[in-house]
Amino acid sequence: MYKTSKYTPADKMSYLICDNYTLLQVMSRFDLSLGFGDKTVQEVCRENGVDCRTFLAVVNFMIEDSDRMEDDVKDISMPSLMSYLKQAHHYFLDFCLPTIRRKLIEAIDCSTENEVAFLILKFFDQYAGEVRKHMDYEDVNVFTYVENLMTGRETGGFRISQFARRHDQIDATLTELKNIIIKYYPAKGNNHLLNAVLFDIFSCEQDLASHCRVEDYLFVPAVRRLEKEGK
Ligand SMILES: [Fe+2]
Ligand SMILES: [Fe+2]
User: Fold this and answer.
1) 58 and 51 in contact (C-beta within 8 Å)?
2) Which positions fall inside the Hemerythrin-like domain (predicted)?
């Protein structure tokens, strides 16, 4: 089943993380904590009640360049995948974006008539608002729809294709913010703080892009499967 995938259930969890530290984010969104010693992926998942196939489907999808993971879709546990996506939303909205905002205020000079600093914060707040709207819609409408679909309740005629058509890339505006800072912020002297927040923005941008890819290429096809089975 995992022949074409990079990581397998028998790999040590520590190997995965040391091989690709961005997978730390995936682990914590599956509610897996550190301190697993030499245990394998399968052992760590089993002990924590996490669906190992779903965990590996996400992990292997994230490290792939290609956007096709049709084979893994059938192995996905929808409750596990949705809980993973919800945790990711919680992370972006309640930790990642507020941290970037705090660091931005610390790094840019908001005291005087610094128009660019003011614009950067305004732009950031608008952006964070858009991300919240995007994720709230998924939490409230899309996930509720899938839960209803799974339990055979009324779904109000909604189909996942309606969501897939309008699912926009929320990382694009962050790219603009990054460009404003890089191109126009009149930095003077020591830029350690500003560089640190730029690093955070770059990494949040990548994280958001891969979150959207998981939704488009794992979540949506898995919901389509459920819709077909329900017919
Ligand atoms: Fe999302
Ligand atoms: Fe999304």
Assistant:
1) no
2) 83-222
Residue 6 in any domain: the answer is no
Cα-to-centroid distance, 48 and ligand 2 (Å): 27
Contact between residue 77 and residue 53 where contact means Cβ atoms under 8 Å apart: yes
In the reported structure, the alpha carbon of residue 109 is separated from the centroid of ligand 2 by a whole-number distance in angstroms of 33
Name residues with Cβ closer than 5 Å to ligand 1, which is an ion: 138
Q: How far apart are CA 28 and CA 84, in angstroms?
A: 9
Residue 186 has which token pair?
């009149």
Count of domains observed in the chain = 2
Rounded Cα distance, 218 and 213, in Å: 8
Higher pLDDT, 1 or 9: 9
The predicted structure's pLDDT at residue 185: 81
Kindly identify the ligand whose nearest atom is closest to the C-alpha of 143. Answer: 1
Structural domain contains residue 64: yes
Domain residues for the domain of 49 are 13-70
Ligand 2 mean position, distance from CA 202 (Å): 18
